[in-house]
Amino acid sequence: MKILIEVLGGLALFLYGMNMMGMGLQKVAGDKMKNLIGILTKNRFIGVFVGALVTLLIQSSSATTVMVVGFVNAGLMNLTQAIGVIMGANIGTTFTAQLIAFNLTDLAPLVITIGVAIWLFTSTKKHKELAEVLIGFGILFIGMDFMKEALSPLQESQVFVDILSNLNNPALGLLAGFGLTVAVQSSSASMGLLLALASQDLITLQMALPILYGENIGTCTTALLSSIGASKTAKRAAIMHLLFNIIGTLLFMLVLHIPIEYIVERISDDPQRRIANAHTIFNITNVLIQLPFAGFIVIAAQKLVRGKDEEVVGLKYLDSRIIETPSIAVNMASREVLRMGKIVKNNLNTAKLAFYNSDEKLTRKVFEEEKKINQLERDITEYLADLTRASLTYEQHGILTTLLNTVNDLERVGDHADNIAELSQYRIDNKVKLSEGALEELGQMFEKVEDGFALSLTSFKTADENLAKRVIEYESIVDRMEKNYRKNHIERLNDLSCNPTSGIVFLDMISNLERISDHSSNVAISVMDAIEKKEVKQ
């Protein structure tokens, strides 16, 4: 029991250190992680590189694959692009095993000391992020050392040696690797335990290889579970991961097991290094063999998961799976908010057409779209709240604040578009006629308000301070328009060219337009605040 507790304690430290190091690496990478989205739109060969790089940074091939499922579910990647990233993730996960095999345990206390010193004696965010990487690195090796020390007495246990001898059966070894990885939900953790056994000469290379293959299949369960409730295309992405690893396992167990043993045994005599090298050679060779036939894996997944996806309703770019990688999740949230802004912009234009054309059909369309906008606002806000609990940099926290403020302003613009549609319906029901002068003034104000709102969305998209300042200038112009047109309206009432009923409609219209301009200005101010905070921090 004591040995089990110590092994579990070491495994817990190992996982914690690996997670901490991964989070620190993500923060240090910063915008580079965000820019990977653009690369992901390229071909599958580049996808292999991206998948390996992302996995190296987040220290989990399972997390990378789950993220791919999220991207596919959001429509950001197709299956041809996804298969490359999935294959690359298998290469990226070999980094941890290679790192462990260097046996840097003696350096761990020094690395942690340096990390803690940096953390305590610096106020710079980037330095603190680097400290996280160092501390996580050190804890990972201390956890590894705990496992090694805990397993050491088992060398004298004949019962344990007899149990391990059963792993000479490849099928049992495969099942053991699969079961262990499913249990701890981390192939890197099961690999760490395997290397700890090898360090105490409790397991041979021949026994370890089937376990390695089983671990690769076991890591697929995370993505498969993640795909439950996702689109059919996302389910196909998870199936592709499973097919890729099963094909690779069969290929190596039936055909390539002798060559891989021969190569590994001649590269190194160290038991840990042999297993780490076998892991690396297996995954790289597997990718090289299957990459030219990736299209067939895509076709097979499509055959296994049949049917078409329904049209996207609600959120498009946001997926809870992507929160595992906060830097990318923040970028996706920005895309979703911009998409919401475009929907609001279109609805405002529809409300304008409904008013000018007295079109009841368009009025109903505005009401329906407003329901969707309200739901978007609720869903995005909930997602952003979840994202705030992730490990974020100072800059990312600032971006989330901007997004929350912007979502609120966009929803309010949507409300005013809905008000305009209600005024349109009132005008239709009561046969309200406006004077030529009133209609002309409304047209001028509409044009300026729509231009200002469109410009606010562009400033949000590009983080352009000059565009944001222009939006504020537009808001001043609209304020003056509202005052002048209100004065003109009083004059029209006095000379009887406008009746009181139409006057109420006119005043409500310019009031709603002026409020839309205020919210456009709010968006621009949020953009300027975010830019200022970023510059101050730098």
Structure, explained:
This protein is mainly alpha-helical and 538 residues long. The longest helix has 38 residues. It has 22 helices and no strands. α17 packs parallel to α19, α19 runs antiparallel to α22 and α20 packs parallel to α22. The model has no long low-confidence stretch (mean pLDDT 82). Helices cover 83% and strands 0% of the residues. The two termini are 52 Å apart. It has 2 domains: 291 residues, no CATH class; 212 residues, Phosphate transport system protein phou homolog 2, domain 2 (Methane Monooxygenase Hydroxylase, Chain G, domain 1), CATH 1.20.58.220. It is elongated, with a radius of gyration of 30 Å.
**Gyration radius, rounded:** 30 Å
Assign an overall shape: elongated
Helix content: over 70%
Task: Give a quick account of the main beta sheet: strands, pairing sense, barrel closure.
Answer: none
Overall structural class, as computed from helix and strand content, comes to: mainly alpha
Secondary-structure element pattern, one letter each: HHHHHHHHHHHHHHHHHHHHHH
Number of domains: 2
- How much of the sequence lies in strands comes to under 5%
List low-pLDDT spans. none
Number of helices: 22
Mean pLDDT: 82
Terminus-to-terminus distance? 52 Å
The beta-strand count equals 0
